[in-house]
Amino acid sequence: MPLLPSRGRLAEFRATGYYDHFPPKSMNVEIKSNDNGRKVLLVTKDIAAGETIYKEYPVVAVLDADLEASGKYCSHCFRLIDDSSTSTQLPADQNPLGSTFCSDHCLTANKAQSTSLLFTQEPPLPPELAASNALDTAGRKEAQDKFVQYLKKEKRAGSLLVARFIARQVALETAKLAGKVVSSTTGSTSSSTKTDEKREDFTDAEEGDYLLADHIERLRYLSVKPNEEELPLISAVLEKTLPGLEQFVTEERHSMLLGKMAYNAIGVGYRDDKPEPTARPEDIEKARTPVGSQHQIGSAFYTLSSYANHSCTPSAKLSFPANTTELHIIATQNLKKGDEITVAYVDVSQHTESFETAAEARRRRRIELARGWRFACACPKCEEEGKELSKEEKKVEEGEIEVEDGKDESKVEESARKFEEKEKEMREEKGAEVE
Ligand SMILES: C[S@@+](CC[C@H](N)C(=O)[O-])C[C@H]1O[C@@H](n2cnc3c(N)ncnc32)[C@H](O)[C@@H]1O
């Protein structure tokens, strides 16, 4: 099962140009490299302020841990479950996370994409591919239970995003092997042809010539140190589901996938009642969202939107107009063909209601960016405002004097800069593909 692109395929991409084929032309954007070797997302036609540039559905999405079993939101599309929803759940023995779905459609999609493989005892392969030897049902259940206990203890979205991502790859590959068509929105399989399905959204998980592995391989990632307990638990679930599958998730690949989710996941939704985090600031999980991770209801991984860079005066905004995970990238200014799409990863407004000065706002967002994504923001607004900083403010930024509340956050940016330099050296050593 080709969960990893082969060396041959990687060589082919280099030769044929992956970015000549991805994203599809209908998305109105293209991916190019800038002078620093960084990828940028550019519009391929003029777009007026307020227009939706493109829509994208997530490859995987995970509700925040405190909401997963609350029954308040759909665990698949994140829709609010109110009186009008025909909400539904899987039977208790297939629902260890206590997930609720807003409709049968979402339940079926979620199950087909990952839940069936990770949390149920259903056969992992379609009957036509199933091996004759019997499944170790008890062993599989035990492995799943241990993994669920871990997820509930750690409460980290990244861990479940990675597990769901791996499961989705397996589901897609097995469906392809069985010659089935996978519905883009439901993830359910049928034997009909692709063309008879009207596509109104974009998720590249099952489209085109590329595998999900090909897409993820291209994305940059943060280097993270996984919890040592995690990989053996996921491996056991995979091995007990389909012996041999665990070999695709090596230590290196597991930490890379966690790093890709940490770098690229987008915070979805808005709420005011999220519990205050208790972890150290550097350990709090952050997803890119202009409303701040503290207001999200969950996080989701989108292939194309992963390429959007941050700006403190963004040219577009991340929006969820249907109050679901359906992401709309909307222009916030008139864009000319070739302009870059930038979005705000963090709250870039100046909190004048709490008398925040422009320099304080700059410092706040830069620290959040450095802490969450380990870069020193090089956007035009930061550059401009940087020139206007008073001597005193510069000293604060450079860590020469402590800020009033005594928190020495100056080192956060300094270490982000060092991280960027180290990363650049590594890239130059290994070649542009590995970041
Ligand atoms: C999710 S990736 C965005 C795509 C990325 N440019 C690429 O080459 O694939 C996020 C990373 O892009 C870079 N980046 C994004 N916005 C930036 C900005 N305003 N200033 C400097 N670096 C930025 C940082 O390295 C950041 O960690």
Automatic annotation (TrEMBL):
<feature type="domain" description="SET">
    <location>
        <begin position="22"/>
        <end position="346"/>
    </location>
</feature>
<feature type="region of interest" description="Disordered">
    <location>
        <begin position="384"/>
        <end position="435"/>
    </location>
</feature>
<feature type="region of interest" description="Disordered">
    <location>
        <begin position="182"/>
        <end position="202"/>
    </location>
</feature>
<dbReference type="GO" id="GO:0005634">
    <property type="term" value="C:nucleus"/>
</dbReference>
<feature type="compositionally biased region" description="Basic and acidic residues">
    <location>
        <begin position="408"/>
        <end position="435"/>
    </location>
</feature>
<feature type="compositionally biased region" description="Low complexity">
    <location>
        <begin position="182"/>
        <end position="193"/>
    </location>
</feature>
<dbReference type="InterPro" id="IPR046341">
    <property type="entry name" value="SET_dom_sf"/>
</dbReference>
<dbReference type="Pfam" id="PF00856">
    <property type="entry name" value="SET"/>
</dbReference>
<protein>
    <recommendedName>
        <fullName>SET domain-containing protein</fullName>
    </recommendedName>
</protein>
<dbReference type="InterPro" id="IPR001214">
    <property type="entry name" value="SET_dom"/>
</dbReference>
<dbReference type="InterPro" id="IPR050869">
    <property type="entry name" value="H3K4_H4K5_MeTrfase"/>
</dbReference>
<feature type="compositionally biased region" description="Basic and acidic residues">
    <location>
        <begin position="384"/>
        <end position="398"/>
    </location>
</feature>
